[in-house]
Amino acid sequence: MAVVDFSDRDIKTLRKMASWYRIAEGAKVPKAQAHKPGDNVWSRIVKTPSGGIPAYDEPDPGNAECDLCRKNDDDELDVIEAGVAVLDVWNASASPVAGATFISAWRDPWGTWWAAPVFSGAFFLTPSGGIPAATQKFTPSFVQAQRYQFNGLTIAAFIPPKFEALGNHIQSAIGGNKVVQAKLIDGSWFVDVEPC
Description:
- The protein is mainly β.
- It folds into 2 domains: 41-118; 122-191.
- Helices cover 9% and strands 37% of the residues.
- It has 1 helix and 11 strands.
- It has a 5-stranded mixed barrel with strand order 1-2-4-6-5. A 5-stranded mixed β-barrel has the order 7-8-9-11-10.
- A hairpin with a 2-residue loop joins strand 10 and strand 11 (188-191).
- The protein is elongated.
- The N and C termini lie far apart (57 Å).
């Protein structure tokens, strides 16, 4: 009988290959089950190492061991046990995750932990009439648009609905009932990318 000693990197590679195989074979995503303390946890708060988590580098996502965190008695985030209570967290983003930062990590159905996307803007639903084009290069048009919230995984309307001024600084109109990403510039929201 031969005994094989796998390195941590070998084990990560084998897990990744098994995950890809399951997906290729049409593995079904398991239904969420009732949460029990310490069991079936789908998201965690972690603190990234000082070097952060590297960006996705085709074909490999970045990854790093992150310290598990929890809320302490003073309602502050605290590392559970540095270097001992850790999660191997992967980053599928083209941007690295900052070091020594508290982030949300979520677990996919195959047990891999991923850094939740970090988003610094807002989402809006354009009104049915759309947003007119900017009249001149430096004269944006504004409408009242419904603002949506983003929790790292989904986009949903606020309850009750929130309406805010949304500007269009490009010289083409944006259609109605489109979800658009916006950024805050000098205290005003402006459409940042093409409609989704």
